[in-house]
Amino acid sequence: MNPFNFNNTYLSLPSSFYSLVKPSTLKQAEMVLLNSNLAQALDITLDNKKALEDVLFGNNDTVNNYSFAQAYAGHQFGGFTMLGDGRAIVLGEHVDNKLNRYDIQLKGGGRTPYSRGGDGKATLKAMLREYLMSESMHYLGIPTSRSLVVVSTGETVFRETAHQGAFVVRIMKSHLRIGTFEFASYLAGEENLKALLDYTIQRLYPHLITNDNKALAFLDTVIAKQLNLVAQWMRVGFIHGVMNTDNIAITGETFDYGPCAFMNVYNPNTVFSSIDTGGRYAFGNQPNIIKWNLIKLAQALLPLVDEDQKTAVTLVQKAFENFDKTWFDVYYDTMLNKLGIESKTIQDRFLVDELLQIMNQLQLDYTNTFLSLSYEIDGVTNFSNDKVFINWKEKWLQRVANNSNGLETAKAIMQQNNPVFIPRNDKVEHALEAACNGDFGSYNLLLNVISKPYSYNKSYDSFLTVPSKNFETCYKTFCGT
């Protein structure tokens, strides 16, 4: 029996794109988290717990015979390398009752041909973190992978110290990424690149099938998806932490929640990732990096854009001619929603820039500053008497007075775009440490809080508290490998 409705179209691609891999058989595994709401939404049957465990714990031969790890390449911190799923195994593509298709992947499922000497495993703490952060992004309304199950494997995994082993069942529309196209273009040949593009369009963007230049139309579509996604990250103060091309999904979904974090005190140079020593993926640099990554996608697609390389380059360059203008249009539209401005103008952008400058100078919390403008909540900020801020607020109030219903309209817009609650770094770490020691009370409470991020609840005021400066200075996040 299988609780999923699997139909594996990815295996129709040339075999260079994957390796059939059976997940590890686990005898002491135990499900520690199950996302029943997600299962219900995707028509995944949970009536038979043993059937689900058999699939996830490597005891269903029918599934195991078709599970696979994906091959891909990518630019990691600017350097190109051959990669692939080193600790992830796709069990299959689940098709729900509305014929929507989702990859069902074990992250931490064991070694694959792409493990490059790694153990293919994951830690319980890292997988609980992935579940928490991806759920937070979902409820914030940002396209994201989601987590169905966290499984404790009963094994010991060694990183900097010994950890409890685990894997997460990750669900996405597709795990195709920019790095997949880089692999096809540079390592698999033009025929395989064309096969990949045709497959991707058929599966994800069928409206492009009849386009005269499918490669160029596909590039335009992915650019639009990524610009919107990064603007949404900036809206909520999210720092991905490892925006390598192999971590940028063609679908425009956020995924790979290893070194990620949410910014507290506003500083565009904020970095929490332990491996990002140069600040390449700092909060304020994310728009530049997504442009860089998309150029890498464009370069990979050149053979399919036009047979003549010069013509192909010219066409691709045109696709990026208005990139910066489009980015600023999307970004400021998003940020002006955070200020509750109804009919936006170019001049309104100065209000955004000026406020961010004030926040940086006064070291104000990003989330709580916008929260204080959206709600009348005492004690969440400490800038109400600052003259520079008072002058800015007067200009802002004069501007929102032009809304259809003035400040009332502004507050309605702001309360839809400014989260009250985010997974604060200190709260996340406390919850994870307790959960790894068997106490899920804080973890479940935090899950509940972040599941209603736009609703103010006074009983959760403690979750508005900003971590201490010492905590933030020392705080580091890790990729988990």
Summarize this structure as a short list of keywords or feature phrases.
17 helices; 43% helix; alpha+beta; 12 strands
3D structure, described in words:
- With 481 residues, the chain is an alpha+beta fold.
- Among the domains are: 163 residues, no CATH class; 152 residues, no CATH class.
- Helix content is 43%, strand content 13%.
- The protein has 17 helices and 12 strands.
- Strands 2, 6, 7, 8, 9 and 10 form a 6-stranded antiparallel beta sheet that branches. Strands 1-3 form a two-stranded antiparallel sheet. Strands 4-5 form a two-stranded antiparallel sheet.
- β4 and β5 form a beta hairpin.
Topology:
Blueprint: E1 18-20, E2 30-34, H1 36-41, H2 49-56, H3 61-64, E3 68-70, E4 73-76, E5 79-82, E6 88-95, E7 101-107, E8 122-123, H4 124-139, E9 146-158, E10 162-172, H5 178-188, H6 190-204, H7 214-236, E11 238-239, E12 261-262, H8 286-305, H9 309-319, H10 323-338, H11 349-362, H12 366-374, H13 387-400, H14 406-417, H15 425-436, H16 441-450, H17 469-474
Antiparallel strand pairs: 1-3, 2-9, 4-5, 6-7, 7-10, 8-10, 9-10, 11-12
Helix pairs in contact: 4-15, 4-16, 5-6, 5-8, 7-8, 7-10, 8-9, 11-13, 12-14, 15-16
Q: What portion of residues belong to β-strands?
A: 5-15%
Low-confidence stretches: none
Strand-pairing-aware structural class? alpha+beta
Helix content percent band: 40-55%
Number of strand segments: 12
Largest sheet: 6 strands, antiparallel
Distance between the termini: 33 Å
Rounded to an integer in angstroms, the radius of gyration calculated over CA atoms is 23 Å
What is the N-to-C succession of helices and strands?
Answer: EEHHHEEEEEEHEEHHHEEHHHHHHHHHH
Oligomer: single chain
Please give the count of helices. Answer: 17
